[in-house]
Specification:
Strand content: 15-25%
Distance between the termini: 23 Å
Helix content: 25-40%
Radius of gyration: 14 Å
Structural class: alpha+beta
Amino acid sequence: MIAIAANMTGILWGNGMGNKRTHSIPAWVKRRAVQDCQTVEEFAHKYRKAERFTGRGKDYAQSVLNTHCKELEEYGYTFISPHDSVTGQTVTFIGKENTLTGKRSPG
């Protein structure tokens, strides 16, 4: 299980066994980060072109979501390229606590 906590300099990730990595989020990622999505699944459904996501079948869409989750675990953020984005520009999603599980923090 991956534990995620936000701090002022980046994202602190750990596996609950004392292994922690801090990632500094690049400035370009922060500039292109969306603020209106709570989970990576919501981000993908809102900002990916349907024909390049769910329009390619259930297995393909799940594979894309798995890649987004792996990027969140590894780097602390994930992104959608201009080619795949409904905005025509790169959009990013910065991981916060519980963004992989979809559960909201109390408060």
